[in-house]
Design brief:
Blueprint lengths: L40 H11 L3 H12 L4 H29 L3 H9 L5 H33 L16 H19 L2 H29 L14 H18 L1 H5 L2 H4 L5 H34 L6 H5 L5 H34 L6 H14 L2 H5 L2 H29 L26 H19 L10 H16 L32 E6 L4 H14 L5 E5 L11 H17 L6 E5 L6 H7 L4 E3 H12 L3 E5 L5 H10 L6 E6 L4 H6 L1 H18 L4 E4 L8 H8 L3 E3 H14 L29
Parallel strand pairs: 1-2, 1-3, 3-4, 5-6, 5-7, 7-8
């Protein structure tokens, strides 16, 4: 497949994959390298320092005070929600830390390389609307601030252009430009902005709380006169905790967008702990002070801190407080509503949209939809955004069960970027029908609960209902017998750069040598012969197929071996630079060349090619007579028959080469001498991988060069890797075309 290598604009160091499909990959979607990650525990904490203290959350939390919950009850409600949220965010965050990929790519695991567009578009679609709405709400604060400092600009706020005044447009576009500038510098600039904004908003909210506490005479009202008790109180406490989860239903889904840059799981856990349980209790205390102080002062319940800010008598402090609220809203918007649609668009159009371009497109859409008009339309907010938001729960349930329970966190990261039908996430034409089957009914139920008035009492729990139903349904229909491989992005790369096999201390050359039969003792012998021929520093990795015949001596066994060898390579999760198929005259080399980007060498062709450098005519001495036509066909297919004097059978089976080595040498020697005398051969090729190690004995008694195919293949593989050469992919050995492959992999015993 084509290597796509575009310069990343997110400033996160990514692993440049080679075996990728360009419609699934660019460097902003690629896995991040661990050594380039900068999101520490403090970075994670500041995300929550901003988001928890958003104006929307304050409005929700103060609403609990208005509903009759007192200070300690609000704190308990927050603690319940915080504990659950802490656990969910860790589950989601660890996924990003392990794989290093953003949410749209992560979704390919459960939904398939094409089906992943569904969760990506739902999450990004909700976020892109809220980006516009939140920018508009922040612009309202900025407009108030401008009028407070320059009252003579009031006439600019009296007209209407597409629903917004001239001053409103100026305020909105100023904040729009600010956010576009921040995003244009990538995720690293977003991290820095969040790190700056977090302490600012914490200090601002604490200062406002202290001021209100002082204004209230050093005490506050701990509850309203209509405070709840008994069952109603407990129901409201748990409902408040559940609503916290619903509020963060979007963020728990794509938290991996940020944790893909996390330095470790520990940094995620620490950042989440300080940012969620600890920070939420601090937030709860601020809410209790603000609401309680205002209620004590005049018996009124505020809607948000913005109501208090407007009453600050000192102009300087008023300006500083307004600026802090603007900084806060921008910070929340960047993390919750800007990053998700950027990755959504980059995933939709990876060839043309990198992080910066996708950010600009997202921002333009955020203006074109005229978000102030949407915000002022309750029907759109409730039915469109509420309905889309309800789908997030089922998506979360499906993705989490697939990752943690079905796969047990075993992820083949390179296969997330390929359309190869044999890849792990191709499923059925790129879509996992089982995930869709679980998502649809769960989403329908969640949407009905969220938007229908008859279910209004349960509407706050729609996320939980959808997530739980999606999780259960997916577990019931998921393929639990499917084998999963844990392959990191860096471990499976095939380097095509020139390597010097004599200087390989830091980066050894690794060659897979695949025995075509399942006899492990023969694999050991083949591996020893390959290691003896290898240059210093070259690592030989002998592999035995998991299924197949104990010896390969016919067409049926050869074709079975071809599938087994390809499956063995696909299952191997370590790094390698070349592959050797150690079977004489066997099928499968062409298939390996289609699915791999590293050089593939067949020992039949390697031995014959080497022999042609050593003499005018060569003969092959193999095992049984029935294998002769297979070898002749392989040589003819490779164009190596012109100098082939003969292919002779020793009469020894493959297994007899091991069990009766002395008789095997005599049989091979007899046919070698006959080839030299009667067929005019000048070079002998040992025609079976199981003959590895017999070269010296035959050469000593025949007096002609004797070529062992395994040794010859090793030297050819080393040369190709050192030269930076591999299989051409433009035509014959292009990757397999994406198509439906029924019942693959086959469910047959592997032992």
């Amino acid at each position: 497949m084509t290597q796509v290598d575009r310069t990343p604009t997110s400033e996160q160091r990514t692993t440049a994959l080679t075996n990728v499909s360009p419609q699934l990959y660019n460097t902003d979607l690629a896995p991040t390298q661990r050594e380039g990650r900068r999101w520490s525990a403090y970075s994670i904490f500041t995300l929550w320092a901003n988001d928890v203290h958003s104006l929307g959350n304050y409005a929700f939390a103060i609403g609990l005070f208005a509903l009759g919950l007192g200070a300690w009850q609000i704190m308990l409600s927050f603690l319940i929600g915080a504990v659950l949220l802490f656990l969910l965010l860790n589950l989601s965050g660890f996924m990003g830390e392990k794989t290093g990929v953003p949410f749209p790519v992560m979704s390919r695991i459960a939904f398939g390389i094409k089906g992943a567009q569904i969760p990506a578009i739902v999450r990004g679609g909700v976020a892109i609307v809220w980006f516009g709405v939140q920018t508009y709400l922040a612009s309202v604060v900025l407009r108030v601030l401008i009028l407070a400092l320059a009252p003579n600009l009031a006439p600019l706020d009296e007209n209407s252009i597409l629903g917004l005044s001239t001053l409103g447009w100026i305020s909105f576009m100023a904040l729009w430009v600010l956010q576009v500038i921040v995003v244009s510098y990538g995720m690293e600039m977003i991290r820095k902005y969040e790190a700056f904004a977090g302490p600012v908003i914490l200090a601002t909210m604490l200062a406002i709380a202290i001021w209100m506490f002082s204004e209230a005479g050093g005490s506050i009202a701990l509850s309203t006169r209509e405070s709840l008790t008994g069952t109603q109180m407990w129901l409201q406490i748990f409902a408040g905790g559940a609503l916290w989860i619903a509020i963060y239903g979007t963020f728990v889904l794509n938290f991996c967008d940020f944790t893909r840059g996390a330095t470790s799981k520990r940094s995620i856990t620490r950042g989440n702990f300080i940012g969620i349980p600890v920070n939420m209790l601090f937030f709860g205390a601020i809410v209790a002070v603000l609401a309680g102080a205002q209620y004590k002062l005049n018996g009124q319940i505020i809607h948000s801190p913005a109501d208090i800010v407007q009453t600050i008598p000192n102009t300087l402090f008023l300006v500083l407080a307004c600026l802090a609220l603007i900084i806060l809203t921008v910070a929340v918007n960047l993390m919750a509503n800007f990053v998700a649609p950027i990755y959504m668009l980059a995933n939709l159009f990876p060839r043309t949209l990198n992080f910066k371009r996708a950010g600009f497109v997202s921002a333009v859409i955020g203006v074109v939809i005229l978000p102030w008009n949407l915000y002022n339309s309750p029907a759109i907010i409730v039915y469109f955004l509420g309905g889309l938001g309800a789908i997030l729960g089922p998506l979360f349930g499906v993705i989490m069960v697939d990752y943690w329970i079905i796969r047990k966190a075993q992820i083949n990261v390179p296969d997330l970027f390929t359309t190869n039908p044999l890849a792990d996430y191709f499923y059925s034409s790129g879509v996992n029908p089982r995930a869709i089957a679980a998502l649809i009914p769960a989403a329908v139920v969640a949407i009905l609960v969220a938007v229908l008035p008859v279910f209004s009492a349960a509407a706050g729990f729609s996320w939980f209902i959808g997530a739980g139903l999606g999780a259960v349904l997916y577990y019931l229909v998921a393929d639990k017998n499917r084998l999963h491989r844990d392959v990191s992005a860096g471990s499976h790369q095939r380097s095509l750069r020139p390597l010097n096999p004599n200087t390989t201390k830091d980066k050894p050359m690794r060659i897979l040598v695949l025995n075509v039969n399942t006899t492990k003792s023969m694999t050991k012998s083949i591996g020893e012969e390959a290691a003896a021929a290898a240059s210093p520093g070259t690592e030989i990795i002998p592999l035995t197929p998991l299924f197949g015949a104990e010896s390969v001596e016919g067409n049926f066994e050869s074709y079975l071996a071809a599938i087994a060898v390809m499956e063995t390579v696909k299952r191997y999760d370590g790094p390698y630079d070349a592959v050797i198929q150690a079977g004489y005259g066997e099928h499968g080399r062409e298939g390996l060349q289609e699915i791999l980007t590293v050089p593939v060498v067949d020992i039949t062709e390697a031995a014959a090619s080497t022999a042609m450098f050593l003499g005018h005519r060569y003969s092959v001495v193999t095992t049984l007579d029935r294998t002769v036509p297979l070898i002749e066909d392989r040589l003819k297919l490779a164009g190596l028959t012109d100098h082939c004097a003969s292919v002779r059978a020793s009469g020894m089976s493959v297994l007899e080469l091991e069990s009766e080595p002395e008789r095997a040498v005599e049989a091979i020697l007899q046919q070698s001498l006959a080839a030299i005398e009667h067929d005019r051969a000048e070079v002998i090729c040992l025609g079976c991988g199981g003959m590895a190690g017999l070269k010296e004995k035959v050469a000593e008694r025949t007096g002609v060069p004797v070529v062992d195919g395994v040794a010859a293949a090793v030297k050819i593989a080393e040369s190709l890797v050192s030269l930076g050469l591999s299989t051409s992919k433009i035509r014959t050995y292009a990757p397999p075309r994406p198509k439906f492959i029924k019942n693959w992999p086959p469910k047959i015993p592997l032992t």
